[in-house]
Write the structure tokens for this entry.
Amino acid sequence: MEEPRSLEELGKEEVELKFICPESKELEFLFPEFYMEYRKSIQFKVYDIREIFCEKVRAILTRKGFKERYFVDAYMISKKFNLRYEDLEEETLRKLKFILRLYYKYKRNLNNKVSMLTVENFPFGSERYLLIEKIDEGDFHLFLNKFMVWLRKLAKAAIAFA
């Protein structure tokens, strides 16, 4: 198994979208000149999932208010990609420190948010209708309880730096 790389080493990775048009004899017959073009693989660069996760955490901690979708995204990413947020603490803290040096409003938002990082303050509910996949709400709330503790710890470390 390949040793995990740091986020700096990861940057953007090249991925391949196999095709955007499903195989279809009807489409091939109706649009022979375009069909194969739409069946070609597409190469593009995407951010590594760990980078995306760190950005979600940064947004949770530095944006004004709560966006439920960030918490749901963090949960879904953790589950789908088997990521442990504790393993990304150093990288996430580095991102927080960087952004706090640049923008006073993020520092202010972080200071205001630390005491609000509790499950009781989490307004889960209005985002449910946006979910394509149902989630195990019991598992989500277990995740949320532990995640909030970690977020408070991370926020306090970032504030101590700032």
Summary: Residues 15 and 44 are 6 Å apart (CA to CA).
